[in-house]
Every structure is written in C-alpha cells, then in structure tokens.
Design a protein that fits this description.
The chain is mainly alpha-helical. It has 20 helices and 2 strands. Helix 3 runs antiparallel to helix 4 and helix 5 packs across helix 6.
C-alpha cells in the first residue's frame, strides 16, 4: 500500500495546487470591485493551498501509472476531502462571518454540488465570493463525471461496472484513462457552460450572474447569486434556460462523447435516458395538473412552475422559482419522492439514479416470473446486455446501504432536536445532494444557517457520503480495507 500511495498523494497535491490557482479568479474580481478584504483572503488562501499542494506533489513525484482498486478508493476520497478543506479556507477568511463549521459545510455543499447553504443576503455579497461558490460547484460537477466514468466502473460501486467504457477494460491504466476522459469531458462541459452563460445573458442577467448561474446549472449544483435563486430572474425567462441545461446536464456525458464521434443515436438508444425523460414528463404533468386544480395558476404559469421546480429537484440542482412548500401536502410528498430519483449515471446529477430503479424493477419482474415458472432461466438484460450478478448485487447493496444511512442520519437529526419535517427532508436532501429540504427552516425559502453545529456536521457527512456513492465511503472506513 505504501508504494501505491505515491501516485495517490501526487494526484491529490496537483489537485489542491490547481484549486489554489482557481482562487486567484475571485481574488482578482473582488480586488477590481473594491472588496479588498475578501480579495486578500482569497490571495492568502491561494498561497497556502499552492504551497501545500505543490510540496505534496513534488515530494511524491512518481512515474508509476498503475493504480490498484484500493489506491483508487483512497485517491477518490482523499481528493474530495483535501479539496473541501482547501476550498473552505477562503470562505472562513473572507470576512463574511462564516465559522469553520459553516465554511466546511458551504465548501462541501459546493464541491458535492448539493447546493444547501448557510448564507443569506447573497445579493449584497462580494462578487468574487459568489463566483468562488460557483467555481466550487463547477469543479465538483466535472470531478464527479470523471470519477463516475473512470473509477466507479473499475471499482464496481453500486452497479456502475455496467458503464465501463470501451477503453476501461485494462484496469491497470486508470490514471492515463482518467486523463483522457477528463480532457474529452472538459471540452463538452465547457461548451455546455458557455452556451448556458450566453443563454442567461439573453435573459437580462449581468455577466457575473450569467457566469455563476451557468456554472452551477451545468454542474446541477444550484448555488445562486440571489436569495431568490432563479426566481429573481424569472421575468427574463431564466427559468426556461435553466430547465434546458439542467436536463442536458442530467444525461450521461459518455453518450455525448459517442455523439461527438458520429453516433448521435446512442443518446436516445440508452435505456436510462428514455427512462429519465419518462419520469420527468410524468412528474411535470402531475404537478401541473395539481397546480391547475388549485385554481391559483393558469395553464402556462402552472406548467412553467411545475416543470422548472420538478426538474430542479429530480436532477438535484436545487434551484427554486417558488416556495413549493406552500403547494400543499400532496405536492410536498411528491417533492420528497423527487429527491430520491436523480438523473443518469455519468452525469453531474446525484441521488439514486434512474438505472438502479430500472435494474431493480427488472430483477423483481424476473423473480415473479420465476415463481410462476421455477425451471425457467430468465437473464436480466439492460441496454441489450446481460446484467452480471456482481452488478445486480451492487445495485441492491446500494439501495440497502443508501436507505440505511438515510434512516440513521434522519434519526440522529431528530435526536438532537430537529422537527420531523426538517430531520427527514434534511437527511434526504443532503444524502441525495439535492439542496433545499422541506418545511419553514430548510425549505426553498429558507437556509441551513439556523441549524446547530451538530446538525450541520451530520448533514456535511451525508453530503460527502452521498456524492461518493455511499458504498465507497463505507468501504474506505472498514477495517478490512486497511488490512494486508
């Protein structure tokens, strides 16, 4: 394990140093805008992170290009931890009255693209500070895509081995493959971000708002530059632009690669893409009818409100154009269910994801058929391929552990004094990396600011565990992982 840690530590050092360079962007913006205290905080944090990351990278330089599954687990979790701590430093030092607990919470929420926040008064915050929050989500979005495409298939986390790329059969070439994937994905990711920013620009947003929202939309993160979220820009049609790009970001980026190579039909041929759009259509239609039945909205207004907010929660983005907590118990129940859906594997979205529900449903149907015909041999197929037992076990293992962690964290939040709605929805939205919860405290019109430090640390752990597909963190923490 000692030898294999050198490339792991080297990679972590390079990532931290790269994040340090990114801190110069908000430093320059705040310096130009006259927010000198915030600019100094980002500049100082950049020096500290660059020193640590650079020293770690120089001390562990290695020509080794192989990476064992155990080392891949360490790299994935170690990188997200190191980046979260580094990202929290300027938040704490920026003069925005953020304790270390709040800074860590905000940084983890950003990098995991959760979008839960402890901040209010966003409209009056320094522009560089707001851009930094958006940068964190943008980095987290591309980071999870590369992780899902390069590492999870090799490690077999939660059934992700089903999405092994053609170039990923040689598991001893993880680092070069990850670099190739990151380069290709980065181009697609950047193009989508630029297109989204241009779209927001046409809605009347300023350049800071357009760029920040474009980064957090494509990352399905949900951080906004306004306390009113996208609702503050709805008059210009920003919600329509956001809906389009949230849907695009929820699709598998591997399919975009295939489309770019001359196989555009690959996107729609993917079973999870079809399943995702079916769920979205049904959810939007159900909410639209519910709002129309209330008599408070016309057909167009009801469709627009329902579609945007349903897509936002299903994809885990977490934007809001209305306080849907006021739409009644039935709507609240639907939004609670939406938190556990997610988008496609290999996208920036979070939560359980569509493919796991599809495979679980197919497995249940096969079991029922076997009860009627015990001697029949009925293989489980997904996207035209037979699902191996290892993937099936991974899917059901994910379901069990995910909801076990949810139950435990919800119980812990309730035990420290949170009301039932806040505890249940808080555990759900953090573990599923959605953003807003339900109720008056953490609902779409509230924040997590008033929660105790103990509650924030539980939610922070949930965000981290959920973003890394639950099982990866538990494997990393098991004593058996560190033996031998």
């Amino acid at each position: 394990m000692t030898g294999s840690l050198r490339p792991v530590l080297f990679a972590i050092g390079v990532m931290v140093a790269t994040l340090a360079l990114a801190m110069l962007i908000p430093a320059a913006i705040d310096a130009a805008a006259g927010y000198h205290h915030s600019a100094s905080a980002f500049f100082l944090s950049a020096i500290m992170s660059l020193f640590f990351g650079g020293a770690l990278a120089l001390a562990t330089r290695s020509e080794v290009e192989t990476l064992s599954p155990r080392a891949a687990f360490v790299l994935t979790i170690g990188a997200w931890l190191a980046l979260s701590i580094s990202a929290a430093i300027p938040l704490h030092l920026s003069g925005q009255n953020m304790s270390w607990t709040d800074a860590i919470f905000e940084a983890v929420s950003g990098l995991t693209t959760t979008g839960s926040t402890v901040l209010t008064g966003l409209d009056d915050r320094p522009p560089g500070f707001l851009i930094w929050r958006a940068i964190l989500q943008w980095i987290g979005g591309i980071g999870i895509i590369v992780t899902a495409m390069a590492f999870w298939p090799m490690l077999g986390v939660g059934g992700m081995q089903l999405f092994r790329l053609e170039s990923s059969d040689a598991s001893d070439k993880v680092l070069p493959r990850a670099t190739e994937i990151a380069a290709a994905i980065s181009i697609i990711y950047l193009v989508l971000t630029l297109a989204c920013a241009i779209g927001y620009g046409f809605t009347g947003m300023g350049w800071i708002d357009s760029i920040a929202h474009a980064m957090t939309t494509v990352a399905t993160g949900g951080y906004s530059t306004s306390d009113n979220s996208i609702g503050g820009f709805i008059d210009g049609g920003a919600d329509i632009v956001a809906t389009v790009f949230m849907l695009l970001a929820a699709l598998p980026f591997g399919m975009f690669l295939l489309a770019a190579r001359g196989k555009p039909q690959a996107v729609w041929d993917d079973a999870q893409v079809r399943g995702f759009f079916l769920v979205v259509i049904l959810a939007c239609a159900g909410l639209t009818l519910m709002l129309m039945a209330s008599g408070a909205n016309g057909e167009i207004a009801a469709w627009r409100l329902a579609t945007f907010n349903a897509v936002s929660i299903i994809t885990g983005t977490g934007y809001a154009t209305a306080d849907y907590g006021l739409w009644g118990p039935a709507a609240n129940a639907l939004f609670f269910i939406f938190m556990f859906i997610g988008g496609c594997a290999g996208s920036t979205t979070c939560s359980v994801k569509i493919f796991r529900y599809q495979i679980a449903g197919t497995a249940i149907r096969r079991h029922m058929e076997n009860l009627l015909r015990p001697s029949a041999i009925i293989p489980i197929r997904y996207n035209g391929r037979i699902v191996p037992d290892s993937a099936l076990h991974g899917v059901f293992g994910f379901f069990f552990v995910f909801f076990a962690v949810y139950a435990i964290s919800a119980s812990m939040l309730s035990a420290i004094g949170l009301d039932m709605t806040t505890a249940l929805s808080g555990a759900a939205t953090s573990l599923a990396n959605v953003g807003p919860g339900l109720g008056e405290i953490i609902g779409p019109s509230g924040t997590f600011e008033s929660l105790s430090d103990r509650a924030k640390w539980i939610l922070t752990a949930n965000m981290f565990i959920g973003r890394l597909e639950v099982l990866a963190v538990l494997v990393f923490l098991s004593p058996r992982f560190w033996r031998g």
